[in-house]
Amino acid sequence: MLTYVAIGAPCGMIMGQTGMEPWMVFALSSTFVTGSGQFMICNLWLAGVPAPSIIASVAAISSRFALYSASIAPHLTGASKRQTLAVAVTLTEEAYGISLAKLVEGEDWGPRESFVLNVILIATWGVSCTMGAIVGAVVDVPTAIAAFVCTSLFICLLFSQRLSRGNVVAAVSSAVSVAVCKFLGLVNIAVPASVVAGIAIALACDAVFDGRGARDAR
């Protein structure tokens, strides 16, 4: 909850700078479960990126929630469809990590506890973003500083990953793809294109090296 406050407040400031009223900020933050997606929507909107490109970019980075739901589904086989749906539609990244760990460890944890945790975190995020929008309307905080909060979060997540060939290739190729797209004037598709390129190149690289390693072993 404390991390949500630290990240949600700057997000609310940026949302306020797009022209959203505090009640709008709370409504969006309470129904849109990916905070990084909210940062992306606001930054791209302020940059004048067309709506279709914003939708494509947010959809690309939000597709990871399908994997989250798929990985947690086997641990909820005893739950009803209503309980499973309630957990899925309120799932956030932090809540996913906590719930999955407890379910795997066999603790006294089920769909009800997962749902309550999801709701608490979403409410914390919504209130934090709203408070940020209110403070941002009074205190002039540069957009670049507030926006870098989300960037710094992903930098921390990047360095916390296992240093593997695939991760390095994905990060480098994505960065190069963004630079190439912007150099060619394809600013509107730079983000979704870099995501697809980074993943595709990393998978191809792993496939080539794994195949070569198998041949060498034989």
Describe this structure in words.
There is one protein chain. The protein is mainly α and 218 residues long. Helices cover 79% and strands 0% of the residues. The chain has eleven helices and no strands. α6 packs parallel to α8. It is globular, with a radius of gyration of 20 Å.
SSE map:
Blueprint: H1 2-17, H2 22-31, H3 35-46, H4 51-62, H5 64-72, H6 81-89, H7 93-104, H8 111-138, H9 143-160, H10 165-183, H11 190-217
Helix pairs in contact: 1-3, 1-8, 1-9, 2-8, 3-4, 4-11, 5-7, 6-8, 7-8, 10-11
List its traits.
mainly alpha; 11 helices; 218 residues
Describe, in short, the structure shown.
This protein has 218 residues and is mostly helical.
Biggest sheet details: none
- Fraction in helix: over 70%
Assess the beta-strand content as a share of residues: under 5%
Q: How many helices? A: 11
Gap between N and C termini: 52 Å
Question: What gyration radius follows from the Cα positions, in whole Å?
Answer: 20 Å
| Coarse shape | globular
Strand-and-helix sequence, N→C?
HHHHHHHHHHH
Given as residue ranges, the uncertain stretches (5+ residues, pLDDT < 50) are none
